[in-house]
Amino acid sequence: MSVPRKKGMWSSISVVFACGTALFMDGYLNGIVGEINTILRRLYPDEYASTSYSTLFSSMGFVGTVVGMLGFGYLVDRFGRKAGMFSASGIIIIFTALSAGAYGANGSVKGMLQALIAYRCLSGIGIGGEYPSGSVSSSEATEEEGINPKIQHLLFGLSTNTAIDIGFVVAAFVPLVCIWIFGEDHLRAVWRVSIGLGLVPAIGVLLWRLVMLKEATAYEQGAIQKNVPYGLVFKKYWRSIVGVSLSWFLYDFIVYPFGLFSSEIVDTITGGSTKLTTVFAWNIIINAFYLPGTIGGSFLLDWLGPKRQIIIFLCLQGVIGFIMSGLYTRLTEHVSAFAVVYGIFLSLGEAGPGLCLGLLASKSWPTAVRGQLYGLAAAIGKVGAFVGTWAFPAIIDAFPEGPRQTSGPFWIGSGLAFLSALIVLVLVPEVKSNHMKMEDAIFKEYLVENGYDVSQMGLLHDTSSESQLHHEVSNEEKKRVPSI
């Protein structure tokens, strides 16, 4: 029988952040790629001009992340959340360190760049692993003893997506500071130190986890480590799986390629200046647009509910996108106005799908398969990002020459925002406070009704806990879930 844990509020909140804030490394390591690519292109123009190193350095992170999401999704359901989080942190630390010290045999530049690309892919596995392990653990920790149900979604939003966006901002800031310190004549030191400084938060989070973490109560009670009834799972949850995954695909398809426009804005504002301090300073401002959306949106989550919030902000983002599309020529004549409207567009995306998709993916499904289904949905989203980065240039080329050519992605992206809102409305259920506890109880009843032996569920068999959960399932919840 499991022993109930007595936790104070701040201790419980600390666990939520210990689980989730490692996603800062996703924002940092992915955000810093643009700056590092810019530096490497200047240091090694001949090697970059004759190869696809630049593209590979950017895209191989996506490959590793998808592998990590899918692989760790299975591992955290099979072996536990703690094992997943410590393993993911270890992978990130090892390959971030190797990236900072990347070296080619006999001083070969091509060997060094190839090693850097390989380390980028392998560190991506750790980053991807943080999604089904750290993010899922963070969501489960919000329903532990000591957490006020009225702030469960707020804590999840601040500890996960906000951490990612802060990572983006810091990633833009660190290379600038390094250039101030070392100067533009020492760019080798700038890019290595910029990557290496990522070890500081990664090691800090690992130590924090060593002190704070225990296996989540939800996992101890609801895990299925063998004989997982996948057929019954997909029969019951297929609509929400399709809805969250497809919405995540469309969001990443839109948001990652739109990062291309930040370079266009910077180039216009600076008049094509090649001075790195100027370029990096404006990148900080562009990335900072994410923060109002993710922080403000986090405080709305418990009030609006993630389903309602994602629909509202997707529609608002679509409206702003159509305005930008229609007024594109006039806005680009006033770059500051364009940058502000573009920033609002990005902020709305963060307040909506940026925050809510991870929350919906982490709380819509039962503990037994939560890591795997979260990892699947998140991986499909990253595939959308990969497809989008290749599709958007083709979209731009398909439009006539002139302003309409570069405004084309805004028309398409805005339309996809409305489509994503419709998908969420039709397929995805709302998630309320203590939703996972209810969902686990309902899922267990569903398995019993379909002849599955639930005695194998959980690490520690606790009949009194099962009885309590059974009692908490209301008639309203029983009617709601089968229709999902």
Write the layout of secondary structure elements.
Blueprint: H1 9-20, H2 24-43, H3 45-49, H4 53-79, H5 81-100, H6 109-141, H7 152-159, H8 161-182, H9 187-196, H10 199-212, H11 217-222, H12 230-258, H13 260-269, H14 276-288, H15 290-304, H16 306-326, H17 328-332, H18 335-363, H19 367-398, H20 403-427, H21 435-449, H22 463-472, H23 475-480
Molecular structure report:
This protein has 484 residues and is mainly α. It has a single domain (9-437), classed as MFS general substrate transporter like domains (Growth Hormone, Chain: A, Up-down Bundle), CATH 1.20.1250. It is built from 23 helices and no strands. Helix 12 (230-258) runs parallel beside helix 19. The longest helix is centred in the first third of the chain and has 33 residues, at 109-141. It is globular and about 65 Å long. It starts with 8 loop residues before the first helix and ends with a helix. Residues 1-5 and 462-470 have low confidence and may be disordered.
Quick overview of this protein structure:
The protein is 80% helix and 0% strand. The chain is mostly helical and 484 residues long.
List keywords for this structure.
23 helices, globular, mainly alpha, 80% helix
Low-pLDDT runs of 5+ residues are: 1-5, 462-470
From the spread of the alpha carbons, the general shape counts as globular
In what range is the share of β-strand residues? under 5%
Radius of gyration computed on alpha carbons: 23 Å
* Strand segment count: 0
Q: Largest beta sheet, briefly?
A: none
Mean of all residue-level pLDDT scores: 85
Note the run of SSEs as H and E.
Answer: HHHHHHHHHHHHHHHHHHHHHHH
CATH fold-level assignment: Growth Hormone, Chain: A
The top-level CATH class is Mainly Alpha
- Output the structural class: mainly alpha
Number of domains: 1
